[in-house]
Design goal:
alpha+beta, four-stranded antiparallel sheet, 4 helices, about 40% helix, globular
Length: about 110
Amino acid sequence: MPQQGFKTLTIHQDVANKLLKIAKEYKNIDYSIGISECVQLLLDLRDRALEHGIRFQPLTYNNDHVIIMDYKLKKPVKIYYKKGKVECSLHKNDECSHVGFAYSLKTVQGIIAL
């Protein structure tokens, strides 16, 4: 039975698995504690990142793009790369801060160098 003032949250299994995968990437998070506790810890990490001026964080890498979290905009942004060129899906150019951050990532540097 949920505590008074709390709602029971039901999420799809795929979402739960993705949250657990993200939690495993962070040190000092015991991802066996349960989804709601895990989500709260991830939100706390986000808030602490914002407090310390951290705006971007890579979420996932793919063959043709990286997804970075923009904490200022509070949404993920895809940065596409191909043939040495990088382009922000949000700004539709290669001159924004999202692209600058993507260029700083070693994984992206390795892919666009091919």
